[in-house]
Write a structure and sequence with these properties.
This protein is of the alpha+beta class. It contains 3 helices and 7 strands; from the N terminus they run βααββββαββ.
Length: 144
């Protein structure tokens, strides 16, 4: 049935994609939160062995196993203690930074409903509500 002409078969990926760059970022005594940020959630997390996280990844192409990778991380308390599996950490490898910093422009926030209501009943005569921006602005008095 696998070799029928005209039948499309899906490439099936299972688990967390694991690569050497991810493993190189891991350091001893990293917290579980830091490891989650780098590796993602583990594929297997045993309730009875919470000191061990298993990351599995496999790709099946045309119903045949093409690639299978496995990494196991061991923790002592909340800190990373060891790594086993198909990848070994290379601490001397150049650090690959895949993060991008974007500077967003400052935006003017509208007043909340509560701020608008309290402004209506405020006793301060020196402020006005700008109808376009819905922001409270100090009144300016013309000077001669």
């Amino acid at each position: 049935m696998n070799n029928l002409p005209g039948v499309y078969t899906l490439d099936i990926q299972q688990g967390n994609k694991i690569d050497q760059d991810m493993i190189n970022q891991l350091r001893p005594n990293m917290t579980k939160r830091q490891v989650l940020y780098i590796m993602g959630s583990p594929m297997l997390m045993d309730v009875f062995h919470n000191k061990r996280w298993d990351f599995l990844y496999s790709v099946h192409v045309d119903h045949e196993l093409e690639q299978k990778k496995q990494v196991t991380l061991f923790f002592e308390g909340d800190f990373l203690a060891g790594i086993e599996g198909d990848y070994k950490p290379n601490i001397n490898a150049p650090k690959v930074v895949k993060e991008t910093i974007i500077e967003a422009p400052k935006r003017d926030l509208d007043l909340t409903l509560w701020e608008k209501i309290t402004w209506l009943f405020s006793t301060e005569p020196s402020t006005t509500l700008d109808p376009e921006t819905q922001a409270i602005e100090p009144e300016t008095t013309p000077t001669n």
